[in-house]
């Protein structure tokens, strides 16, 4: 099974740290190879097009921005990505075009 890559973008605030913890928990829950990164470098966050933190990306696609998702919600997004679907479910700022 292909490893999923999750990236949490944030500035190190409490909400960003909570999203990172929730992403780690979700990765543990689903039981598939998952790598979780936490990026706080402002230049990298900006270059990813993130306008509001915390943000979450799965396999390079931003699926959430500006909110702290629960571990169960993150696990659902990962499972959608495993099925080959758009993990954002059309809910991201691109209107589902990502």
Automatic annotation (TrEMBL):
Domain Thioredoxin-like fold: 5-79
InterPro entries in the record: Thioredoxin-like_fold, Thioredoxin-like_sf, THIRX-like_proc
Gene3D superfamilies with a match to the protein in the record: Glutaredoxin (3.40.30.10)
Pfam families cross-referenced by the UniProt entry: Thioredoxin_3 (PF13192)
Protein name: Thioredoxin-like fold domain-containing protein
């Amino acid at each position: 099974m292909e490893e999923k890559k999750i990236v949490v973008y944030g500035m190190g605030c409490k909400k960003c740290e909570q999203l990172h913890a929730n992403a780690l928990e979700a990765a543990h829950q689903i039981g598939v190879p998952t790598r979780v990164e936490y990026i706080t470098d402002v230049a990298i966050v900006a270059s990813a097009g993130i306008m509001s933190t915390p943000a979450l990306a799965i396999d390079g696609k931003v699926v959430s921005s500006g909110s702290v998702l629960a571990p169960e919600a993150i696990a659902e997004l990962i499972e959608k990505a495993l099925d080959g679907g758009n993990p954002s479910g059309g809910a991201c700022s691109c209107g589902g075009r990502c």
